[in-house]
């Protein structure tokens, strides 16, 4: 029996009872459709997180005080641990080979007021001009902190778009005075919006010179973070090791248990990807249950078909069909059902994903691999759930099958 | 050439009904030469169906030897039996057993599908077989469930002829037909018999039907009670067969 004949037999058999074939297929359509839709939501979330983390700056190493062990959070963060990063560390990092820019930060929340009386409680970041490059931030209007302002303890501030809107509404804030923690500042620029990245919203911040922050606003001599951008992506690991070594030497601590941690974007991305992967698998396995139910529907229909067509099977055997031919024929019917169901399921899942991103505002992403997987799974379901009915058909005794009423 | 030597068939009933053994065929021996038209007749329960299953290679005997064209087939596997059925035997059943939704041509060419014959050749051989079974050409593309009983049986005969078998086994072919249509079917068999050299075996419980054959083997309680040439064979008048 050639493939073409098998195809024709399958078509004839399935089209003989279109309503039943269609309803049985619907189970698979819904199953595959929901798996595709769920995976697309999970992958969309992953994509969003990835772009927003990469948007924080490329090839970025972030040095924070305290020691982080993977999976255990900050340990040895005893008293004073949060004060271990000093201004001297900036120079150490600047001298490292492969480093493009270094941007130290000190941040704290303060009350900020505008002349019109609007006020907001936002994160104030004291930093250096390099911050713009390292964190990949663009200006909408005005300018960012300059070297001169850094040296002169300039009382100037660049506003994040959210703060600018809260304080000044639609007005242009550049040149206007604001008060940060009761000290007078002048607005020199407004930043382009970046969108939120997890718990931290870079738009809801204002930027002042690091020196002004440390000496006037906070009265401290340490840093909360140092961001280091590495020239080349391939040198990331090397730069991370080098920075750890040099800072340990400078701080006179054991490199195995330092008083600071270096987090690369890859680490953050890895951790968040793990979360979204778990989320995706969780959603997909719930959707997968409906796929199993659909498969049982296929098996049920195939068993009914085998019983109904017992005489036909008997006749086919009498005219020379082998058990293998009968087996193939019924297996082909089951696989054809699930494969077609898989096709329509992919279309349905795609439409659901589109609708979700359209109406619910969640970014979705239907990947080629999930489509291939869906087809693979639906063919496998056809084989698994069609196997038993096909075997039952093939093992019928021709004499009894011909006599079956 | 069919040769049966001391064929017996024993059925065992299940343990729930006592596990008793029933001897459906007892020590049956006869042979049929190529080109004979033989009727096997007997009342129901006589064992003629069991005998047909063995001759038709649907079943194997419990004991004894069966040679079809000098080949011993009493101990072949299911797959080997399927090969023999496909190559050497054509079946005609009382209930026609056509695929209801397939066209007449498709039904007739079905055995060739399993023989792996190409589509163009399948069609031409199916048409030849339909012509040999005197099936009118205008119905070739009809679906078989649109036909009358007599027409369906002629499709079944064409299907039995299509693989050019050496043996045609007809199991009560007129059982579901009225007398006149039955006559036409019997005439078709007679025509095949007089025209070509293949063996035809007709299994029937009606002596009237059996009288159309050239030789009658009667069976009762699993044993052959008579086996004789039928000298005054009934000939269906050409007026009916047309």
UniProtKB/TrEMBL annotation, chain A:
<comment type="similarity">
    <text>Belongs to the ABC-4 integral membrane protein family.</text>
</comment>
<keyword id="KW-1003">Cell membrane</keyword>
<keyword id="KW-1133">Transmembrane helix</keyword>
<feature type="transmembrane region" description="Helical">
    <location>
        <begin position="368"/>
        <end position="388"/>
    </location>
</feature>
<feature type="domain" description="MacB-like periplasmic core">
    <location>
        <begin position="21"/>
        <end position="243"/>
    </location>
</feature>
<dbReference type="InterPro" id="IPR003838">
    <property type="entry name" value="ABC3_permease_C"/>
</dbReference>
<keyword id="KW-0472">Membrane</keyword>
<feature type="transmembrane region" description="Helical">
    <location>
        <begin position="21"/>
        <end position="42"/>
    </location>
</feature>
<feature type="transmembrane region" description="Helical">
    <location>
        <begin position="330"/>
        <end position="356"/>
    </location>
</feature>
<feature type="domain" description="ABC3 transporter permease C-terminal">
    <location>
        <begin position="285"/>
        <end position="398"/>
    </location>
</feature>
<protein>
    <recommendedName>
        <fullName>Multidrug ABC transporter substrate-binding protein</fullName>
    </recommendedName>
</protein>
<dbReference type="InterPro" id="IPR025857">
    <property type="entry name" value="MacB_PCD"/>
</dbReference>
<dbReference type="GO" id="GO:0005886">
    <property type="term" value="C:plasma membrane"/>
</dbReference>
<keyword id="KW-0812">Transmembrane</keyword>
<dbReference type="Pfam" id="PF02687">
    <property type="entry name" value="FtsX"/>
</dbReference>
<dbReference type="InterPro" id="IPR050250">
    <property type="entry name" value="Macrolide_Exporter_MacB"/>
</dbReference>
<dbReference type="Pfam" id="PF12704">
    <property type="entry name" value="MacB_PCD"/>
</dbReference>
<dbReference type="GO" id="GO:0022857">
    <property type="term" value="F:transmembrane transporter activity"/>
</dbReference>
<feature type="transmembrane region" description="Helical">
    <location>
        <begin position="279"/>
        <end position="303"/>
    </location>
</feature>
Automatic annotation (TrEMBL), chain B:
<keyword id="KW-0067">ATP-binding</keyword>
<dbReference type="InterPro" id="IPR027417">
    <property type="entry name" value="P-loop_NTPase"/>
</dbReference>
<keyword id="KW-0547">Nucleotide-binding</keyword>
<dbReference type="InterPro" id="IPR017871">
    <property type="entry name" value="ABC_transporter-like_CS"/>
</dbReference>
<dbReference type="InterPro" id="IPR015854">
    <property type="entry name" value="ABC_transpr_LolD-like"/>
</dbReference>
<dbReference type="GO" id="GO:0005886">
    <property type="term" value="C:plasma membrane"/>
</dbReference>
<dbReference type="GO" id="GO:0022857">
    <property type="term" value="F:transmembrane transporter activity"/>
</dbReference>
<dbReference type="GO" id="GO:0016887">
    <property type="term" value="F:ATP hydrolysis activity"/>
</dbReference>
<feature type="domain" description="ABC transporter">
    <location>
        <begin position="2"/>
        <end position="238"/>
    </location>
</feature>
<dbReference type="InterPro" id="IPR017911">
    <property type="entry name" value="MacB-like_ATP-bd"/>
</dbReference>
<dbReference type="GO" id="GO:0098796">
    <property type="term" value="C:membrane protein complex"/>
</dbReference>
<dbReference type="InterPro" id="IPR003439">
    <property type="entry name" value="ABC_transporter-like_ATP-bd"/>
</dbReference>
<dbReference type="InterPro" id="IPR003593">
    <property type="entry name" value="AAA+_ATPase"/>
</dbReference>
<keyword id="KW-0813">Transport</keyword>
<dbReference type="GO" id="GO:0005524">
    <property type="term" value="F:ATP binding"/>
</dbReference>
<dbReference type="Pfam" id="PF00005">
    <property type="entry name" value="ABC_tran"/>
</dbReference>
<protein>
    <recommendedName>
        <fullName>ABC transporter domain-containing protein</fullName>
    </recommendedName>
</protein>
